[in-house]
Specification:
16 helices
Amino acid sequence: FFFTPTTAYEIPLRLVGSEMCIRDSTYSILPAYFLNTGVEVMPIAKSNAEKAIQLNPNLAEAYTSLAWIQFTFEYNWLDAEKNFQKSISLNSNYATNFHWYGLFLNTTGKTSNAINYLKKALDLEPTSLVIPTNLSQAYITINESNLAINAFNIAAKINPDFPYNLWNYVRCKKDYGNSIDLINKAIINNANDPMLRRSLFWAYIKNGDIELAKDQMIYSFDNFHDKMTVGFAEMYAALGKYNEALKWIKKGIQAKDTPLVFITINYDFPQEFKSDPRFVELMKSINHPAFLD
């Protein structure tokens, strides 16, 4: 959910083992785009990263790739952070590591630090689409809507229809009618993107158009039934159907879906739902730092 298919090609082919890192990063971002499940591709990605480290123990890219897999698939948060930090110690100019480590920090509740790393990543890769998108997301986390819109605008200049950036816009602006128009425009060129349907559902809910929101939910079930587990949980929770929402989160855990780790920063669940002991226990089962005692 935080990358474009071009992300893999931004990784430099400059050190022994880098080709494996490219394959690894390609595999590891597929679940974020609902193209494969984590179970299908993450073991391959991890094998590639570990082989790259064996070939060159000083390859920063390999440690970043391994950290991403530990973070989003294995729920091994401690080792993920160690490997993100190892990568920085090896190469302080590798934008992807600053980017992904910033996502990690935002997810763990260290948003101020996350913003610093995301800004550094953007300095290193000023033409990136996804980095300002995630910077906008971090500002939303701390309720800095104006700064979030500034970051949104950076990404929007590159691609005004990028689904994940449009989601940031929807959450920042209270004019949901305008958000609905923007999303529907983007859907014309990308009708089968789950993120756009999720955003449109949410905008309709906030605008009081419950039946139109349900139409988007039905469309999503028909087209993304086996892909959008956390998204369906969010939809059910918005409709007050917490038991169904919990069932979908359980499905996501069983499938080891990448979006689970971003549940605190990229999804909008009612506070009552997030306080439900059943939800808290599910988050503890993936070692999510925001829910551990």
